[in-house]
Amino acid sequence: MTTIRTGHPRPAVRTLSVLAAAATLVLAACGSDDRGAVADTPDDTTGAATTEAAITASPGTAAPETTAENSDSDTPARIVSLSPTHTEILFAIDAGDLLVAVDEFSNHPPQALELPDELSGFEPNVEAIAGYEPDLVVIGGDFTGLGEQLDALGIAWWDGPAAMTIDDTYRQIEELGEVTGNESEAGTLVAEMQSSIEEIVAATPVPDEPLSFYHELDPTYFSADSTTFIGEVYSLLGLQNIADGAEGDAGGFPQLNAEFIVSADPDLIFLADTKCCGESAQTVAARPGWQDITAVVDGNVIEMDDDVASRWGPRIVDYLADVSDAVAAAQS
Amino acid sequence: MTRLDDELHVTGAGTGAGDVPRTSTTPSPAGDPADGASEGAAGATSVLDEADRSERRRDVRWLVSGLAFLVGAVVVGASIGPAGPEWWRVPLALVDHLPLISLDSGVSEAEWNIVWQIRMPRVVLGGLVGAALSVAGAGYQGVFRNPLVDPYLLGAAAGAGLGATLVLTVGRDATVGWPIDPVQTVAFVFALCTVAVTYFVGAAFGGTRSGATLVLAGVAVVSFVTAVQTFLLQRNLDVVREVFQWILGRLSGSTWSDVRVVTPYVLVAVAVLLLHRRHLDVFRVGDEEAATLGVSVQRTRLVIVVAATLGTAAVVSVSGLIGFVGLVVPHAIRLMAGATYRRVIPLSILFGGGFLILADVPGRMLTSPAETPIGVVTAFIGAPFFVYLLRTRKVV
């Protein structure tokens, strides 16, 4: 259920002087007037989203330098993104130029690296965020009550916690399109992703026996089962996840037993711990007892990009393509 | 000559000095390694001899029980796992792989691979870790005469945690290509350094008289080191799971190379503590009394602390912080077999090792094929058992 909350307009919380920092800069984030305009964001009741989008619309005020009439006062002009996934989405829907700061882990696309990146998404500091004078803060899961703090400052925010399904991703993309005024770009992106995924799935050769795989999150054998977002990606190609059926798993991310992995004898191993932990096909092959696993013997240990595997943004399509290639290679 | 350790034993269980009468009638050189070598001294009566022999028999009985427990634990640990051959085939396969013996166990090459390459290192490492932590805990409790002491008291765990966090956060790039595991190595070095700092702080400000000062110095140093670690972690939240995982303690990723890394240190710790078991009994009466009995208190305490720390640091650096074992196993032994360190030390080694091996079995079976953290299991099984012991023995 997507809920849009309208913020309480408040009298001057703080005055702000907008500096013409970027060419696109138009609006002040939280105005000094008390006109009490309540944003007219409609209730979006389509779809049962697991995301909660909260928009606190700030009373728009034209900055002195800008043209008199701010027709688009409800679209943000200075966005702070605290989530790498949403930074990627914002760039992909053409809203990247509205970003004034990103969190420390936002490293894609390359333009994101040029933005200030000292903010923390895990332990967000509301003062540091407010220092960028944003009129929209994009949060990737609000665990710390940041939204309330931003409400108090009259800064609009949107929260998109980790997606559980690819549909969640589509929904979050569309919501971000809405709140940034880039609905059409968002719609295009979603349509592109959907058709790409369909194409990839259709083009992937289906084996007689489903191939089994092990998705490795770290060298202590944490994995992800099919109930997770990344697990769903593999399911699209009909792969069999050896982590399924691990009882007592921690929300879909069980720590597997090494004996079990070896005896499950996966056809494919996907390493999502190449960046974090330096794992590779070589290090996996060198693990005691692992040398006889089918994936190791056949050279089907695939080094993935940790970042892509742990995010739920548009690049999941590329990830799926890589998995598809691996499936094809394993059958040839 | 009345032997000191026997006399102390008779006074019952307990780790505090207060319950030990300070009435050593015949100050004998403590630490006399020769068991029962002073027969026929003046005043030795046949009654004492009889009591003595019965004590010796109890010693042997306990030692045999401990060995049997350890061997049993190894066999059970090796036999049960989420994969691999049927459990009863494993002992056959183990016998089959002994030199000169050949029998058909029906275990395939792949199954043996699972048992030998994945399960056995875990079992052996579990035994080493359990033995080292238990004996170190017993040693620490002995020299500080404090029942609440565990092997992590002086900072071995906090130091190792900081070392591991450093490597996992800021040192990842700097340690690429090290021929040895950087996390283990740095954790080990930091563990030793932290305990050294504690020792020097304690010695500098507490003089050389009191073990209590050392304990308090440990509290201060541990707080400081933990604060640094927390700060580092908070600055690098992307590795929080790795660090947390490391701190939780685990046997799950054990390899033979881990076993090779810790074995020498554990052997040193075990050997030194075994040799000092009588000194520890003397410590029970108090520092000054021990000194009057001819024990060099400072030096002996240092030797025991260094040995216990070496073993603790080594096992912590490969298996993380496995709690409960080092604190409670020695107490359980005292409750069952008596408080004399003549028994507590060797039995801590045997039962501590066996206990951790057994605790790891539910660790890998309870949520199979997922893992349950070993620290959860040790406390979950150990705590009720300990309460049971307290209830039935009613003496601490």
Structure description:
The complex is a heterodimer of chains A (332) and B (396). Chain A is α/β, with parallel strands linked by helices and 332 residues long. Chain A is built from 12 helices and 8 strands. In chain A, helix 4 (166-180) runs antiparallel to helix 5 and helix 5 (183-203) packs parallel to helix 12 (316-331). Chain A is elongated and about 60 Å long. Chain B has 396 residues and is mostly helical. Chain B is 69% helix and 0% strand. Chain B is built from 15 helices and no strands. The longest helix of chain B has 36 residues, at 109-144. The model of chain B is unreliable at 1-40 (pLDDT under 50). The A-B interface holds A 105, 120, 122-123, 218-222, 245-249, 254-264, 276-278, 287-289, 292 and B 81-84, 110, 113-114, 116-119, 121, 172, 176, 234, 237-242, 245, 250, 252-253, 255-256, 364, 366-372.
Present the secondary structure layout.
The complex is a heterodimer of chains A (332) and B (396).
Chain A: E1 79-81, H1 84-92, E2 99-102, H2 126-130, E3 136-139, H3 146-153, E4 157-159, H4 166-180, H5 183-203, E5 212-216, H6 229-236, E6 240-241, H7 258-264, E7 268-271, H8 274-277, H9 281-285, H10 294-297, E8 301-303, H11 306-310, H12 316-331
Parallel strand pairs in A: 1-2, 1-3, 3-4, 5-6, 5-7, 7-8
Helix pairs in contact in A: 4-5, 5-12
Chain B: H1 4-10, H2 46-79, H3 89-96, H4 109-144, H5 156-169, H6 182-206, H7 211-235, H8 240-248, H9 256-275, H10 277-283, H11 287-292, H12 297-319, H13 325-337, H14 341-365, H15 374-393
